[in-house]
Specification:
By secondary structure, this protein is mainly alpha-helical. The chain is built from 23 helices and no strands.
Length: 392
């Protein structure tokens, strides 16, 4: 009975090829003819004269011998520890779409004794950053994070955690989990370069805002502003999130101070929204006579992207003055203009709020079926960002 190759231990790639060839009842000449690799090359590989054959040579041979590609790579990484070979095997594992194998090869690559570990890490990190397929990026960043955490390589730990966070934060069903992952990165902020610091502070500011952690939004946003000495749109959007946070916290004095500051800095995103902020402050401080006309103006001037925010604020003000006729005509006129922008947690949050207000209006006026439908819509949009407290 033939001995299974799976039970054998190999010391060279030649051993693997020879055992599979013998089990296939092929001569070296036959294998050479089928694979296109010269028989002399195969013979030297099998007898150990060529102990480190190239992948370009061995892969065609392995295909003829029906050695599964992932299995052949498994043999290779146990036998050949050269960085160049392992890096080639990593690319091969990715070409085969084998995520677990790619992770295993990456780990072996980092463990090779033939090169400095920091140089190996830098090469792997830069390589993973160029991949476009998240199926490989996330698992490979996990390899990087685990390896650097165990060995105290703080710089690459910080960079790996940042990359992982940026990939995962767009999963709105895991906002809470990814937020705390982001907070971990801040412990390593000193190991990031300036641009990376700005990115994590800004992204965490937006993340905190989406989760209604407004104090944290302000804190992270200002940390980012302190590091960012350029003028750019993202910086202005963070300023907008800071102003929103002061508004939601009811700190209208701080809001006015920051509106004045950002106007002086010529932040376009703030200048375009000053009227809306002032109308909202009127509404939230009970000045509905001043708020409603101003908010109507803002809604008439709005773009599609921010319509839902202005729509909801006006709806809220109208609800507070108990004017059902105005609300009815408002709903009939504005409902058809609502546009939904996918993958925007702020839009989802505001849509949840809008449909909650709509449900309240219907139920208050005895339209229970319509009210329940609106509440279901509200739950749906809050659910898209995992806002369980708002759902409850």
């Amino acid at each position: 009975m033939k001995e299974s190759v799976h039970t054998l231990e190999f010391t060279t790639i030649g051993d693997v090829i020879k055992k599979y060839r013998e089990q296939s009842d092929l001569s070296i000449s036959q294998l050479a003819r089928l694979s296109g690799v010269h028989k002399g090359v195969i013979a030297r590989i099998e007898n150990g004269d060529t102990r480190r054959p190239s992948l370009k040579t061995t892969i065609p041979v392995a295909k003829v011998l029906n050695i599964p590609s992932d299995e052949f790579i498994e043999y290779y990484i146990e036998i050949d520890k050269r960085p160049k070979v392992l890096f080639g095997l990593l690319n091969e594992a990715i070409r085969l779409c084998n995520v677990s194998l790619a992770s295993k090869v990456a780990k072996r690559f980092l463990e090779t004794p033939y090169e400095d570990s920091h140089l190996l890490m830098e090469r792997l990190y830069n390589f993973v950053a160029t991949l476009s397929d998240q199926r490989f990026q996330l698992p490979l960043y996990h390899v990087i994070i685990k390896y650097t955490r165990e060995r105290g390589m703080q710089r690459f730990l910080a960079k790996g955690l940042l990359k992982k966070y940026l990939l995962e934060r767009d999963d709105f069903n895991r906002l809470e989990e990814t937020y705390y992952n982001g907070e971990e990165i801040l412990h390593y902020a000193d190991f990031l370069d300036n641009e990376e610091k700005v990115i994590i502070y800004y992204k965490m500011a937006f993340h905190a805002h989406a989760m209604k952690k407004y104090d944290k939004c302000i804190e992270f946003g200002k940390l980012g502003h302190a590091e960012d000495h350029t003028q750019n749109e993202l910086k202005e959007r963070v300023a907008l999130a800071i102003c929103n946070s002061y508004m939601f916290l009811g700190d209208y004095c701080a809001l006015e101070q920051h509106l004045d500051l950002y106007e002086k800095l010529n932040y376009r995103f703030i200048i375009e929204r000053v009227k809306f902020f002032r109308g909202t402050v009127y509404s939230r401080t009970g000045n509905y006579v001043g708020a409603i006309p101003l908010l109507r103006e803002c809604l008439a001037e709005t773009t599609e992207v921010n319509r839902i925010f202005r729509l909801t604020e006006l709806f809220d003000a109208l609800s507070k003055v108990s004017d059902p006729d105005s609300i009815k005509s408002f709903l009939e006129e504005e409902e058809k203009k609502i546009q939904i922008f996918d993958n925007d947690p702020y839009q989802y949050s505001e849509l949840g709020r809008y449909y909650k207000l709509k449900g309240n209006y219907f139920v208050t006026n005895g339209l229970f079926d319509e009210g329940m439908d609106a509440y279901v819509q509200s739950i749906y949009y809050f659910g898209k960002i995992g806002a369980l407290k708002l759902i409850m």
